[in-house]
Design a protein that fits this description.
alpha+beta; 6-stranded antiparallel beta sheet; globular; 5 helices; single chain
């Protein structure tokens, strides 16, 4: 019974995610984008993060698996906290944002350029790093 319940919850989550995300790197709205990014980073599901934000054509399956292991080694535990430390409207529906995820003394810094279009939100570019310097250099 527990297995069936867990399977159902997993299926419902995947259905919600598939509905919220229109295409790779494109979301119905900012709330769906934010939920996707925060959940993926906080759970250290970097492969799904990369694929979902438009990196599907950037890596082979083997390279992506290697990136997942590499990032899990950098950040050994799931994150407990998240904050948006900087968000700027660049005009024309374009914005950039910096997010910080942490647990204990372990930090991850995320940066994205987003474009709010008429009916959806597109992720133009993103990066995640264990150092804040490369993220801050983009502002």
């Amino acid at each position: 019974m527990r297995y069936c319940a867990a399977l159902l919850i997993s299926f419902l989550w995947m259905s919600h995610t598939a509905f919220a995300q229109i295409a790779d790197g494109v979301f119905r709205d900012y709330a769906d984008y934010e939920e996707f990014v925060d959940n993926r980073v906080m759970q250290r599901d970097f492969s799904t993060l990369i694929l979902g934000l438009g990196g599907r054509d950037e890596f082979t399956k083997e390279q992506l698996a290697g990136k997942q292991v590499q990032m899990e080694n950098v950040w050994g535990k799931d994150f407990d906290n998240v904050t948006i430390f900087r968000k700027e409207d660049l005009g024309g529906g374009v914005m950039q944002e910096g997010r910080m995820y942490w647990t204990g003394q372990s930090y991850a810094f995320y940066y994205a350029i987003l474009h709010q279009r008429e009916n959806d939100l597109a992720v133009i570019s993103f990066t995640i790093n264990s150092s804040i310097k490369p993220v801050m250099a983009r502002f």
